[in-house]
Design brief:
The structure is a single chain. This protein is of the alpha+beta class. Helix content is 28%, strand content 21%. Strands 1, 8, 9, 10, 11, 12, 13, 14, 15, 16 and 17 form an 11-stranded mixed beta sheet that branches. A hairpin with a 5-residue loop joins strand 2 and strand 3. It starts with 11 loop residues before the first strand and ends in a 6-residue tail after the last strand.
Length: 516
């Protein structure tokens, strides 16, 4: 590619953004590559500060009732990019829309803390029964099922971003066409060329437009991290949102000022399809889980600071201390694999029994196949024949949501800085994102207790107990905790490394441009 032309009097930013987006509708996405784009064009009640913490967005301020169940948000004077005022009705409309089962948002369960949300999402109650209402054009009231002190964190997530009611009512799902796209953020979508780029331009009606430096931003799909690295170094891209793990140390030596790594709230894991016979047997799940050499994957394959994961919630999550790993996590690999062979023999697999065979469906990004090959070898060492099936990332996740897999390779990045952002995934009612259909009433009960518990320490203990149950059931197999890895041209200013890896374009500029 060649760098897109930039007008002489403007500042342009060209970003390598990972996979191709499937949508630019906040209610129909699930990838961080899509949310990066939408965080530039849509602003929720709160938004990301440069350090990734929530700050006032469309809401200038808010109040909470003494019991933590009623939140009142006071909206600033702001307009959509077509000049129509942003009102509390836009937020009421948007929250009803994402929870409407006809929208089929796989993220809807994230909002089940809102009063009446689950019955609405399950089609058992009308959208009008949802606990959200406009008290006036600029006053929004949200009533909760249970206290949610992390609400300002979720309020900046795409699930709570508003869509323009007047455009959605007019055009339906076609409102996201670039010639119809209306935003309330610092940028507005101008072009989307499938397989090429998404282009957004500065929104002059944004409430803080005067402080926005970059005039045009391009998001290019970059599934090949090494090719994207070359493009950044040639100046075709200003930054890329990932670095191939095993090249990170080399790049830190060669161009250290370009490399940004940081602790990141993410976990890589495998999910067993609980609907299939071999994975209904807990001995099979335990054998496969304990026989993986996580240290080899983290330290020899990835080599960018990732850590072996024996728990599901990563270190560094707010208001939490990690659950105790399973006892076998401290065993040497040869002892773990010997025990795995014994468990498989008990389950009727191995010498004298059937051979355990299945497929590992995995994503096709650069470093995933190497990890899957290592896991395949670990399982071969205990007598298991696992075939690798590689798919493009979006196709793989579509298969996981449809339960079209034996074993799925997946990753999760926190939607908000709280342990529930990880643990809610495996709730029995969490929907499509509970890929393996994990169900345990005791687990659900502890999450429900945590939801109702106002004391931070008691809540954390309920969540630790729940995670301990999750780990003991072996339906979900955490493998590594990640680090964010960004390759950023040093001429870019305003970049702040942070634990949630959020870097809105509105805070960035280019050295030497516009007086910077």
């Amino acid at each position: 590619m060649s760098r897109p032309a930039c007008p002489a009097d403007e500042v342009c930013l060209v970003i390598g953004n990972g996979p191709e987006p499937i949508s630019l509708d906040p209610h129909k996405i699930n990838g961080i590559w899509e949310s990066r784009i939408l965080s530039d064009v849509l602003v929720g009640l709160t938004e990301d500060a440069p350090d990734g913490t929530p700050v006032p967005g469309m809401a200038e301020r808010w109040e909470t009732s003494a019991d933590g169940l009623v939140w009142t948000f006071y909206l600033r004077d702001a307009t959509w990019s077509d000049g129509v005022p942003v009102t509390a009705d836009d937020f009421v409309f948007s929250l009803r829309r994402i929870l409407d089962p006809k929208t089929a948002s796989e993220y809807a369960s994230l909002l089940y803390f809102i009063k009446g949300s689950q019955p609405v999402n399950e089609g058992k109650a009308p959208p009008e029964s949802l606990g959200v209402r406009a008290l006036g054009p600029k006053v929004l009231e949200i009533t909760l099922e249970r206290p949610a002190p992390y609400l300002p964190e979720i309020a900046k997530h795409q699930t709570m971003q508003p869509v323009p009611k007047h455009m959605v009512e007019k055009y339906g799902d076609q409102w996201t066409r670039p010639d119809r796209y209306v935003s309330n953020g610092p940028y507005v979508i101008k072009e989307w060329r499938l397989g090429d780029y998404v282009k957004a331009v500065k929104n002059p009606r944004f409430f803080d437009a005067a402080s926005v430096c970059v005039d045009q931003v391009y998001f290019y799909p970059t599934t090949d991290a090494v090719a994207a690295e070359r493009r950044v170094r040639r100046g075709e891209l200003d930054l890329n949102t990932t670095i191939q793990s095993n090249r990170t140390a080399f790049l830190k030596q060669e161009i250290p000022e370009w490399v940004h790594t940081e602790t990141y709230l993410t976990v890589a894991y495998l999910a067993f399809n609980a609907n299939l016979p071999p994975f209904k047997d807990p001995r099979v799940r335990r054998a496969l889980n304990m026989s993986i050499d996580r240290e080899f994957i983290a330290e020899k394959i990835l080599r960018a600071g990732q850590k072996p994961a024996y728990t599901f919630v990563p270190p560094g999550v707010a208001n939490y201390s990690q659950a105790t790993p399973p006892e076998w996590a401290a065993w040497p690999l040869d002892r773990r694999q010997a025990e795995a062979r014994r468990l498989l023999a008990q389950a009727g697999y191995g010498p004298g029994g059937r051979k355990l065979t299945f497929e590992i469906k995995h994503r096709g990004s650069t470093e995933i196949p190497l990890q899957m090959a290592a896991i395949q070898a670990d399982w071969k060492a205990i007598g298991v024949d696992a075939k690798l099936v590689q798919n493009e990332t979006q196709i793989a996740y579509a298969a996981y949501r449809a339960r079209d897999f034996d074993v799925a390779d997946a990753g999760w990045v926190a939607d908000y800085n709280d342990p529930m952002s990880f643990l809610y995934l495996m709730r029995s009612d969490s929907g499509p994102q509970n890929y393996g259909d994990y169900r345990n009433p005791a687990y659900d009960d502890l999450l429900n207790k945590a939801d109702r518990e106002p004391d931070v320490n008691k809540r954390a203990e309920y969540l630790r107990q729940a995670e301990t149950i999750l780990l003991a059931d072996d339906n979900v197999v955490p493998t590594t905790f990640g680090v964010s890895r960004n390759l950023v041209n040093p001429k870019i200013t305003g970049w702040v490394d942070n634990i949630v890896d959020r870097h809105p374009t509105r805070y960035l500029c280019v050295k030497g441009e516009k007086g910077r």
